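Encode chain A's predicted structure.
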Amino acid sequence: MESKEAQKLAEKLRQEINEHNYRYHVLDDPQISDAEFDDLMRRLRQLEEKFPEIVTPDSPTQRVGGQVKAGFDTVVHRVLMLSLDNAENIADLRDFTRRAKNLAAGAELEFVIELKVDGLAVSLQYERGLLVRGATRGDGNVGEDITHNLRTVKSIPLRLRRPVTVEVRGEVYMPREAFLKLNEERKRTGQPLFANPRNAAAGSLRQLDPRVAAERRLEMITYALGYSPELVFATHYEALLALKDLGLRINPYLKITKSLDEVIAYCESWRERRYDLPFDIDGLVIKINSLELQERLGTTAKSPRWAIAYKFPAEQAETRVLGITVQVGRIGTLTPIAELEPVRLAGTVVKRASLHNEDILLAKDVRVGDHVIVQKAGDIIPEVVEVVKSKRTGNEEKFSMPESCPACGSTVRRLAGEVALRCFNPSCPAQVLERIIHFASRDAMDIEGLGEATARQLLEAGLIRDAADIYSLAGRRDELLQLERQGEKSVDNLILAIEKSKQQPLWRLLYALGIRYVGARTAKILAGHFGSLDRILAADSAELEEVPEIGPKIAESIAEFAALEESRDLLARLRSAGLNFTAAEKADGREQLLRGKTFVLTGTLPNYTREEATRLIEEAGGKVTGSVSKKTDFVLAGEKAGSKLEKARNLGIPVLSEADLLKMLSAADNTPSGGE
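Encoded structure for chain A:
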């Protein structure tokens, strides 16, 4: 094939990929499976690798840049990016309407209501249809150039469907499911947790290395036209529909009304419904629809007079700090925890709240005995918002982070550039326990029956001292039976689960080792690239950093692990135990059965937990998401299924029982018959 022919084929593939991206991200109506889409991308990538001269800046393969920026440039917005005034209650909404009517000199008002997605506001500039620049809001006049990161967001088109010049505004956010997975991964790899999805999205977009943003699942919803020399509309709603036709994703929950009562009712209806969304919203935005009226109403120095944000009050509760304890994590990170008088919050009883690190503890000045306001960050993670200092009696006790590890007594210290104190004693019992729990966890070696309680028992009884000792337990059955609450069946099941774990793929073993910054995704990438654990650990920094998504921090951490004598001893014993040190794939009849199929789970299944059912689906090549949409292929429903089941029926999506799912997987000889 000649270069000219390759160029034509590449352009055809790009158009096809862009069309499928549009149908997936904007229309919510995919026409091909994930596997078919991946095949298109693979063909384009191979073509561009063979003919590098045909690569274009807007090619779908160019979403992840390899260059790390030295810093952020500034961008002057063509039209000011103003923030919105807030309506804290219904009275504020009525006041907004009254003021708008007065300024409109009696003109009839029509409102557009949109969900207020909780993320980071950005501006995108397209010239002749090509994305040329993306920036943060900044001070409204000047923002930071984050184009290199915004190009990695798949719902942001690199090329519009028409060659127009336009500046648009949108909100980049992190879906709730992606946020939970990111924090779980950060916890397992010893990194500080993000407080909420908004912080996670903002932190991802302000990375100098675009590979960091690329590996986090960010999305964008476009909410306004900022500027265009060629697009003219009469209403805000018309502008949004035009932006959607150009390939930009807009909010699917739009309402137009002339009635203030309908505005109020719609806002109130989302107070509880918001928890069914796959992303966080902190309210709704009400805008005057007429663009001519928007122009007449004008702006104040900070905000437009034609729009207002109706904010949901955060669900908060007051309780008292009974004590402050310190947890020691798997890599020695010390985390202060507020022990609270139990309080009900967002549907659950909260007894503990993380204070994150020493800096936050000092900034909030939380003391033992304080009355505090707590809320769930992003309606997920309990956190202390503030101290009710007016209720202090003088008997409250200040808390200082310890100078030595509470678990082993070793001196703790803070590394340069880090916020957390750490214990560096590899034999610290708290770290040993956490490493064993991590090693046996579901996403790692998946040793059923070896949770925190059992791991603690085994350590205290002297039956294990590290993860490799787990594989000697089969020869110590009699000693296991002497432990409290360990009967013959539970011991035999544990031994069987340990033996079964020896067949886990290489990436799980690599992840289970608990190397800092090596999460499950990174482990899969490294295992797929190098093919063996020996090659991974023998690779130097340059070799590691050549691998897509592997940066210097990961490379340095792997080198540190490989250099430790304790690591070499652990690996030698794991090898002797017969664990899988290579990436050879297991024969698995279920592997491709559900490839390209998307499932949503709801309700309680008779034999499987949600985690177990998710694992079955994913091992068979399927994908599990948190919300029902047109992209959902099946809903797996159990008892007490909620609104997801109703939505599936309304959309005509097939609903499966647990038995139906097992029938779909029955082609595999090794499909389990039920959970325990």
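Residues 598-664 form a domain with the Rossmann fold fold (CATH 3.40.50.10190).
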